[in-house]
């Protein structure tokens, strides 16, 4: 938990950064939820809303960066306070990227809907998105509570997301091989799945930033950081 300061204006500046990060997190979460909903339902209007909302997230990041620089110049923070401010800059950058990834999913919603694909193709995307959004929500809860106890568990979830993404990659390739008409929509869905998997990576980055903010120590750099789609083989394995 961050210590209180005698100078109330300084305290308010730090609280402002924390509030803006929380607001950015909520906005990024909604964007991803709505992007996936637009993809599954083929809702072009909702998809356009998500694309437009990304500008708000971009502006919020610029606002946080500008405020952080002013606070550093004015207050010359040290130790915990400096980590808090640098952490806000890092977290804002990851949240902005999550918004970009949500926007990318939304931009493909219309193309996929036009192909008129069966609902079964979207089940894996929905499951992957649910896992990534659960991780993002937990990350935002950790930021609000500064609870170090839950950080390890949240970071470990990234491995589950990678495993599910690899499974979905294999499933979509199978659909493409079974029916050439699936190639175009499944290609779009593969890009969507990768965007969602990357959301998990950014959520994990945020957890690591929070851990450093709280403890002053870096988390071990031994977490898995890649999926295994490069090892997926559909049909005969020609490498043997």
Briefly say what this structure is:
The protein is mainly alpha-helical and 240 residues long. The chain contains 7 helices and no strands. The C terminus is likely disordered.
Q: Can you put this structure into words, describing what you see?
A:
With about 240 residues, the protein is an all-alpha fold. The protein has a single domain, classed as Methane Monooxygenase Hydroxylase, Chain G, domain 1. It has seven helices and no strands. The longest helix is centred in the N-terminal third of the chain and has 34 residues, at about 10-40. The protein is elongated, with a radius of gyration of 20 Å. The protein starts with 7 loop residues before the first helix and ends in a 25-residue tail after the last helix. The model is unreliable at about 235-240 (pLDDT under 50).
Mean pLDDT: 88
**Gap from first CA to last CA:** 56 Å
For the biggest sheet, the summary is: none
Order of helices and strands: HHHHHHH
What are the main properties of this structure?
disordered C terminus, 240 residues, mainly alpha, 7 helices, elongated, Methane Monooxygenase Hydroxylase, Chain G, domain 1
